[in-house]
Amino acid sequence: MFEKILIANRGEIACRVIKSARKMGIKTVAIYSDADKQALHVQMADEAIHIGPPPANQSYIVIDKVMDAIRESGAQAVHPGYGFLSENAKFAEALAAEGVAFVGPPVGAIEKMGDKITSKKIAQEANVSTVPGYMGLIEDADDAVKISNEVGYPVMIKASAGGGGKGMRIAWNDQEAREGFQSSKNEAANSFGDDRIFIEKFVTQPRHIEIQVLCDAHGNGVYLGERECSIQRRNQKVVEEAPSPFLDEATRKAMGEQSVALAKAVGYASAGTVEFIVDGDKNFYFLEMNTRLQVEHPVTELITGVDLVEQMIRVANGEPLSITQDDVKLTGWAIENRLYAEDPYRNFLPSIGRLTRYRPPAETAAYTPGTAAGAAGDVVVRNDTGVYEGGEISMYYDPMIAKLCTWAPTRDKAIEAMRVALDSFEVEGIGHNLPFLSAVMDHPIFMAGDMTTAFIEEQYPEGFDGVTLPEAELKRVAAACAAMHRVAEIRRTRVSGRMDNHERRVGTKWVVSLQEQEFAVDVQADRDGATIGFDDGSSLRVSSDWTPGDQLAQVDVDGPLVLKVGKVSGGFRIRARGADMSVHVRSARQAELAKLMPEKVAPDTSKMLLCPMPGLIVKVDVEVGDEVQEGQALCTVEAMKMENILRAEKKSVVTKINAAAGESLAVDDVIMEFE
Prior knowledge:
Layout: E1 4-7, H1 11-23, E2 27-33, H2 40-44, E3 47-52, H3 63-73, E4 77-79, H4 89-98, E5 101-102, H5 107-114, H6 116-125, E6 133-134, H7 141-151, E7 155-163, E8 166-171, H8 174-192, E9 197-201, E10 207-215, E11 221-233, E12 236-242, H9 249-265, E13 270-278, E14 284-290, H10 297-304, H11 308-316, E15 333-340, E16 342-343, E17 349-350, E18 353-354, E19 357-359, E20 380-385, E21 392-393, E22 400-408, H12 411-424, E23 426-428, H13 434-441, H14 444-448, H15 455-459, H16 471-493, E24 509-514, E25 517-526, E26 529-534, E27 539-544, E28 552-557, E29 560-568, E30 571-576, E31 579-586, H17 588-594, E32 608-610, E33 615-620, E34 627-628, E35 633-639, E36 642-647, E37 652-657, E38 664-665, E39 670-674
Parallel strand pairs: 1-2, 1-4, 2-3, 4-5
Antiparallel strand pairs: 6-9, 7-8, 7-9, 10-11, 10-13, 11-12, 12-15, 13-14, 15-22, 16-17, 18-21, 19-23, 20-22, 24-25, 24-31, 25-26, 26-27, 27-28, 28-29, 29-30, 30-31, 32-39, 33-35, 33-38, 34-37, 35-36, 37-39
Helix pairs in contact: 4-5, 5-6, 7-8, 12-13
């Protein structure tokens, strides 16, 4: 077995590989850019080598720099993770020439299946059903428009070497095809060093289901079930689960066997994923093969008990698979939520900055990758991450902070465990998508398992603006806050240094206001908690060990309730189940007077184009004096390797431009103004 492995990656996947290598007794080497000097993967590895400036195209994807680090460290093998150089055949060739093992498939398999154009041609030759499209290379935007019309709108414009949603655009007309081609080409060049683009028909209302395969160099191959990846935003997966709530055993078997046959046809040896589009009648169509470890691999590990990273290392060491298809058993249900540094209240635009607070829910101590999740108990919580409290979220890399996973014997229990885990996850200092993930977990379509890849687009057409909790949940939150307010009031009565003859008394009757509702409550406390009575005659029993200053409250209000708690004047900022609300607890007179207070009016920014996230101005498409039409492109902002085209909201005339291409802007900086 290898004695030392270099991990040619960063972030959570580098940390994930280190965990399995450490379990196997293998030393690890991390590489890092200037931006990652203090990163978690650098701290976890046995050694760390600096490889260049922050941009990936000057560090992590520069083959010569990575090869220099390998030589310096004396590593015998390299695990590429995902993204960066993981599907780069030239990198695998360079390793082979150096006599260093690549923890991934053979060069030939990467070339044939890692390239989306070539893989589709091979699939067609193998009589695998594929999505209609143009498999040749596309020269320019005019060519892209012509081909798009031949294929028929809508079309998907994709980077041949792409992955992770980078270099992908959906075009519904000629203008979008032209713009999408250029943006996809730019993103592909920046992210992968390969700007080749192809176009295929965009299949509406599909489900995205993928098969995990594992093959060795001795001709053995197995499939480890499927993953449901239909909940996506901008073609990037957000929620994954295994198994799929849609497939039956016959379809699973057919997809699995076809995936293994396809892998064997190209001499595949390692972990890989065959992705399919599945329609409502369970017809499946080959989409692409990812010749690497997938981001969402933990859900497969949780239901199979197979450590995929360990298996990749063993295959790279020349070992045969230790399992057969008959050994693969799918147990229970696993769900993964991707926590991203993006603001759901700003249309999910990237957010960067320092993690002033980062407290994930406690992981299940009894579970480690490579063991059956069921052995750890009824519920398993796993959090794969590459950050820590006080660390920086950089603008140079992917915005994913963590992958939160839960496992339980049934899908309903796994979902409930995820709800609690999301509510328990404390993240401050940056915008993040925890509220949105919580909303998805409570959405009727998700709970029923009836989602398609259009779920987010259809259910949140105007973006995400928070959650309004049902009245029953609001009453539970109100009861919890009333009890918490009483505890805080008691604390305040014990403050020393008070004026003589001034005694503060803690009342029992309060008015709790939240999300435009009011509840008059009566708080009757005892040693074990408090009973909260409501005007309608109902009551709720509250018990908790919360004390003032705690930012997380584990409360029992006729059942478990987890609240993130902040302070606002006269109450609390409460975040739970996707809702972010100010909860005020007042006396009856205070509540009456509060209704007379004027509301603060937000400043008028309707005649300004504000930068929606910290980023770099790539280009400005208009000049002062130009008349712009609704929907017209005004400028392009790049952040976290993604290009965002900002468009005019209405017809107007540009009166001032405050930023030029190449400038870095903060969120809400004024880019231009209109008459």
